[in-house]
Amino acid sequence: MHDLAHCTLEAGDRELAGYVVTCADGNLTFAAERGVMGTFRTGDDVQALVLDDVRGEVRYAGYVSQVGVTTVRIQGLELTSMLQKRKVARVNIAQLCTGVAVSPDGTTRDISFVVVDISAHGMRISTTTELTDDERVVFEFPATDRIVPLDAEVLRVQHTGNKLIQYGCRFVDLAEKDMDVLFRFVLQTQGSHRRNRLG
User: Fold this and answer.
1) Which residue, among 92, 56, 70, has the nearest Cα to 9 in the 3D structure?
2) Which residues are bridge partners to 97 per DSSP?
3) What whole-number distance in Å separates Cα of residue 120 and Cα of residue 86?
4) Which long-range contacts link 167-173 to residues 24+ away (Cβ below 8 Å)?
5) What's the confidence (pLDDT) of residue 53?
6) CATH 2.40.10.220 is held by the domain 90-195
């Protein structure tokens, strides 16, 4: 369970980023991306935050039973919370995309835009193209796993004070497997952002 999922260990103000090697029978083996370097000691009470592709954000409490150069073994693992983040998880990005804006009568026009943030259910885009609330944006999004075909309905507009306009959009007719790909992309990108902040 949780194998290779991104994980953060915390004890007070000490924090270490890495991933889960194994998690079973109340034990978790954690591998640090840049080595443990004396961050934790045997007997420390720790919190483990695991970002799981399926389960979402999972938090555990436990204690350190063994410390290696790059690994930490946690015992007495107890689940403290689990948040299925697929509906709420969102990540800020800056992905340039091209697609087609489709009006209700079927008229199409080419559009270029930047995806400002994205979730498994919708996105916010920035563009110089004016869109109406009843238009859709059809395009392909380059997620980590594969290219995802998306059809996004424009819900709201926000003028930013320059020529760029931001639109909030909701995905329509999105297949479950494509939703899962987007959710994994969000979690992986969040993990990458977190590692960059720690680095």
Assistant:
1) 70
2) 113
3) 6
4) 167/124, 167/125, 167/127, 167/131, 167/137, 168/122, 168/123, 168/124, 169/122, 169/123, 169/124, 169/125, 169/137, 170/121, 170/122, 171/121, 171/122, 171/123, 172/136
5) 65
6) yes
Beta carbons within 10 angstroms of residue 193's beta carbon: 13
Distance between CA atoms of residues 121 and 86, nearest Å: 8
Burial of 121 (0-12, 13-18, 19+ CB in 10 A): middle
- The ranges assigned to domains in the chain are 6-83, 90-195
Kindly state the percentage of the chain with pLDDT values over 70: 93
pLDDT by residue (tens digit) across 4-45? 888 999 998 898 988 999 999 999 999 987 788 888 999 999
Its pTM stands at 0.59
d(CA 115, CA 99): 12
Cβ atoms 95, 148 nearer than 8 A: no
On the question of pLDDT at 133 being above 90, the answer is no
Fill in the DSSP letter of residue 176. H
CA 182 to chain centre: 8
**Which tens digit of pLDDT belongs to each residue from 39-90?**
899 999 999 999 876 677 889 999 999 999 999 999 999 999 877 665 667 8
Q: For the chain, how big is the Rg over CA atoms in Å?
A: 21
What would the CATH number be for the domain defined by 6-83?
2.40.240
